[in-house]
UniProtKB/TrEMBL annotation:
Its EC number is 6.3.1.2. One of its GO terms (molecular function) is ATP binding. It comes from the Eukaryota. Belongs to the glutamine synthetase family. It is an enzyme of class 6 (ligase). GO terms for biological process: glutamine biosynthetic process. Homooctamer. Coiled coil: none annotated. Residues 24-103 form the GS beta-grasp domain. It comes from Gigaspora margarita. The keyword Hydrolase does not apply. This is Glutamine synthetase. It catalyses: L-glutamate + NH4(+) + ATP = L-glutamine + ADP + phosphate + H(+). Residues 110-354 form the GS catalytic domain.
C-alpha cells in the first residue's frame, strides 16, 4: 500500500468548527470478538449528566465475531462516559458492555463479572496501575522508524530515548497523552521502550472497575490518534521475533492494607496467594504470552512463578522503594500487552482477597 490512509486534519478542522444546533454526538465504544475495539455514533438532543440517561443500543454481532448470523443483535449497555477529544465540545465517548438477546453477558463481556467482584471487595479499596506497552507500524507493515526490509541497530539506545535517530513516533505519543487528559482518562505517564518503535503509557492508580474502563478507552484513543497519522497500533506481546523485547502490561496492585504502615505484610501475603494460582493467572494473561515470557528480555519464565524485590526477571516484583518503606504495592509483570484488564484485575482480586 503506497497511498497513505491518513486524516486530512487541517481540512477537517474547518468542519469541526460548525455549530451543532444543540445536538450532541455520542460515540459508543465496545470490545469485539477478537479483543479489538469497535465504535459507532448516535445523535442525542440533550446533554447527559448521568449514565442512566443514555439509551441501550445494539449492533450486528455477526460482523464482529460476537453472535451468529441468525440471531445477530447484540445489545450495548452504557457503562462509562468520557469526553470526546476528537469532536470536542459537549460530545462524548460512551464505553458500553455487550449483552445477548436473552439478557446474559456476551462471551466477550468480562466487565460484568469484574464489576460485581470489585463491588464485593470495595472496602479493601483495590488500586491498580497498568503499564501498557505497544508497537507502532506503518501501513506497509514495517515497524515505525525501522529501515525498509532491514533491522535497526541492537537494543540499548532506544529506552526513554531522545533524538530523531532513536525515537520514532513521538507525535503520536504526545497527541495521545493530551487526548487522554482531555477525555478524563487517568493517564499517569509515557516513555519510549527498549525496542525501537515501541512505547508505553501508564494508566492509574485507578480503583476497582475503573482500571478496565480507563485502559480500554486509552487504547481506543490511541487507535484513533494513530489513525490520524496513518499509523497502526499493535498490542501483540511479541510483534517481532528474535532478540527484541516483547510488549507487556505490567499490572501494579495494592489494597488499603498494603498502603498503610507495615503494609509489606499484606503485600507478601497477596504474593503467596497469587503464586499458588499461577496457572489460573497465566490463563487470562494474554494470547501468545508464551512467546514473551521466556525468562529473557526482562521477564520471568511462563512455567515458573517467582518474586523478588527490584527483580525485573521475576513474575512479581516489589519495587525497591516499597520494600524500603515497608508498604506500597506489588507489580505483576506477567500480563501481556493484549490482556483484557477486566480479567486480569478480576483474577488478582480473586486470588489475593478471596
Ligand atoms: P515501572 O518502574 O515498572 O516502569 P511505571 O512508573 O511505569 O513503573 O508504572 C507504575 C504504575 O504503578 C503507574 O501506573 C502508577 O499509577 C501505579 N501505582 C503507583 N502507586 C500504586 C499503588 N499504590 N497501587 C497500585 N498502583 C500504583
Ligand atoms: Mn445499517
Ligand atoms: Mn513502566
Ligand atoms: Mn515498560
Ligand atoms: Mn513495570
Amino acid at each position: 500500500m503506497s497511498l497513505a490512509n491518513k486524516s486530512n486534519t487541517q481540512t477537517l478542522a474547518k468542519y469541526l468548527q460548525l455549530e451543532q444546533n444543540g445536538k450532541i454526538q455520542a460515540e459508543y465504544v465496545w470490545i469485539d470478538g477478537n479483543s479489538g475495539l469497535r465504535s459507532k455514533t448516535t445523535t442525542l438532543d440533550f446533554k447527559p449528566s448521568n449514565i442512566s440517561e443514555l439509551k441501550e443500543w445494539n449492533f450486528d454481532g455477526s460482523s464482529t465475531n460476537q453472535a451468529p448470523g441468525d440471531n445477530s443483535d447484540v445489545l450495548l449497555r452504557p457503562a462509562a462516559i468520557f469526553k470526546d477529544p476528537f469532536r470536542g465540545g459537549d460530545n462524548i465517548i460512551v464505553l458500553a458492555e455487550c449483552y445477548n438477546n436473552d439478557g446474559t453477558p456476551n462471551r466477550t463481556n468480562h466487565r460484568h463479572s469484574c464489576a460485581k467482584l470489585m463491588e464485593t471487595h470495595a472496602e479493601s479499596h483495590p488500586w491498580f496501575g497498568i503499564e501498557q506497552e505497544y508497537t507502532l507500524f506503518d501501513l506497509d507493515g514495517q515497524v515505525l522508524g525501522w529501515p525498509k526490509g532491514g533491522f535497526p541497530g541492537p537494543q540499548g539506545p532506544y529506552y526513554c530515548s531522545v533524538g530523531a535517530n532513536v525515537s520514532f513516533g513521538r507525535d503520536i505519543v504526545e497527541a495521545h497523552y493530551r487526548a487522554c487528559l482531555y477525555a478524563g482518562v487517568t493517564i499517569s505517564g509515557v516513555n519510549a521502550e527498549v525496542m525501537p518503535g515501541q512505547w508505553e503509557f501508564q494508566v492509574g492508580p485507578c480503583e476497582g472497575i475503573d482500571m478496565g474502563d480507563h485502559l480500554w478507552i486509552a487504547r481506543y484513543l490511541l487507535h484513533r490518534v494513530a489513525e490520524d497519522f496513518g499509523v497502526v497500533v499493535s498490542f501483540h506481546p511479541k510483534p517481532i521475533k528474535g532478540d527484541w523485547n516483547g510488549a507487556g502490561c505490567h499490572t501494579n496492585f495494592s489494597t488499603q492494607a498494603m498502603r498503610e504502615e507495615n503494609g509489606i505484610k499484606a503485600i507478601y501475603d497477596a504474593i503467596d496467594k497469587m503464586g499458588k494460582r499461577h496457572a489460573e493467572h497465566i490463563a487470562v494473561y494474554g494470547e501468545d504470552n508464551d512467546q514473551r515470557l521466556t525468562g529473557r528480555h526482562e521477564t520471568g519464565h511462563i512455567s515458573q512463578f517467582s518474586f523478588g524485590v527490584a527483580n525485573r526477571g521475576a513474575s512479581i516484583r516489589i519495587p525497591r522503594h516499597c520494600a524500603a518503606e515497608g508498604k506500597g504495592y506489588l507489580e505483576d509483570r506477567r500480563p501481556a500487552s493484549n490482556i483484557d484488564p477486566y480479567r486480569v484485575t478480576h483474577v488478582i482480586v480473586e486470588s489475593s482477597l478471596a
